[in-house]
Write a structure and sequence with these properties.
about 80% helix, mainly alpha, globular, single chain
Length: about 220
């Protein structure tokens, strides 16, 4: 019971901020980004964190904190990319309204892009990678907490810890999914979510770099 309670407290203390990220993802759901992609991405990112932490707890991996902070570059990249894509979409919309002649060419490029997307979907949807990358980057600083925590327990106790962690990942996803159904939350995120998401990702990346001392280290 002591192990279970300690694990639950540790998980909540290190992952409660994921609810805000999940709220952001769920608010952006469309024909491309589905709930299953968000949940799968959350699990992929978190499982990767666990694998690294368990490896480190066995003494086989030592990662300097400053290098862990480099994970902050992932959300920064995704945020900048999202801003550029939104800018391009606005330019395309303006071109369509003005009756621009390049529309057929753009349609052909979309067909080619769809072919590549369908090929990737056979392995894993690109949106799963995106959510997993942000989840992994956001939890990168948790590795330094998980490694000494896991190192103090036996193999079967680590199995119990992993099971509890994975169960609570599902709980976080469920809570965020339910919160998004509240009218005031849904309306706010629907209205401003697509604008805020890129800046939230960039701010998250900078915070990760700053908290881990990465910027100071490389300067």
């Amino acid at each position: 019971m002591s192990l279970i309670l300690t694990t639950i407290v540790l998980f909540l203390a290190t992952n409660i901020d994921d609810i805000f990220l999940l709220l952001t993802w769920f608010s952006q759901r469309n024909a491309s980004l589905k709930s299953s992609h968000i949940i799968a991405g959350q699990y992929v990112g978190f499982i990767l964190l666990l694998v690294i932490s368990i490896t480190g707890s066995l003494g086989a991996l030592i990662i300097p904190q400053a290098w862990i902070g480099l994970l902050g570059l992932i959300p920064v990249y995704l945020g900048v990319k999202a801003i550029i894509e939104q800018y391009k979409e606005r330019k395309e919309d303006q071109g369509e309204q003005e009756g621009a002649e390049y529309i057929p060419t753009e349609d052909v490029s979309r067909k080619v892009e769809n072919k590549h997307t369908n090929m990737l979907q056979k392995l894993l949807h690109p949106n799963v990678y995106k959510v997993a990358a942000v989840t992994f980057a956001n939890g990168g600083d948790n590795i330094g907490v998980y490694i000494p925590f896991l190192a103090t327990y036996t193999s079967w106790q680590v199995v119990i810890i992993v099971i509890i962690f994975l169960a609570f990942v599902a709980l976080l996803c469920y809570i965020a999914y339910k919160l998004i159904s509240f009218p005031f939350v849904a309306q706010a995120l629907e209205k401003y979510g697509h604008i805020a998401v890129p800046f939230v990702l960039i701010a998250l990346g900078i915070l990760i770099l700053k908290e881990n001392g990465t910027l100071t280290f490389f300067m």
